[in-house]
């Protein structure tokens, strides 16, 4: 029985090795036997250039106009001041919860969004709007910008916050 398993494993290994492409030319042969490149290699983009290009359209001040979760109307959560966020070129997130100021480091990779530890001022606030805002912000892991003026922050594939760019 053991020799059958060993024999079967050896056959499988040889079959997989035979299927592996060891041609390093990155091309295909033509009728005259010369290699024609299929794909040109490109120089990778440096990570700092990628993040700067990716986050440029996020820079500025964004005003919250939708938040998911509470059964309280949006205007009831934020009767006086709507929460705002500001993003700068160095990857910092700051803003106002509608009551207190806050800041946090922000990491953006492609459309992934990761907020670091949030620090905030400690003024007493009415209602639950601030807690709803901060707890929702901590759940965000993706973002999308539509029409250049609408920022959606998402948890998975669900938009949990929506902001409008302040002009």
SSE layout:
Elements lengths: L1 H18 L7 E3 L5 E3 L9 H9 L4 E8 L6 H4 L6 E4 L4 E5 L4 E9 L2 E4 L3 E2 L8 H11 L2 E5 L3 E6 L2 E8 L2
Antiparallel strand pairs: 1-2, 3-4, 3-11, 4-5, 5-6, 6-7, 6-8, 9-10, 10-11
> If you compute it from the alpha carbons, what radius of gyration comes out, rounded to the nearest whole angstrom?
26 Å
Shape: globular
Total count of strands: 11
Average pLDDT, all residues: 77
From the N-terminal CA to the C-terminal CA, the straight-line distance is 75 Å
Question: Care to give the gist of this entry?
Answer:
The protein is built from four helices and eleven strands. It has 167 residues and is of the alpha+beta class. The chain has one domain (47-165): Lipocalin (Beta Barrel).
What does this structure look like?
It is a single chain. It is built from four helices and eleven strands. The chain has 167 residues and is α+β, with helices and mostly antiparallel strands. The chain has one domain: Beta Barrel (Lipocalin). The strands form two sheets. Strands 3, 4, 5, 6, 7, 8, 9, 10 and 11 form a nine-stranded antiparallel beta sheet that branches. A two-stranded antiparallel sheet has the order 1-2.
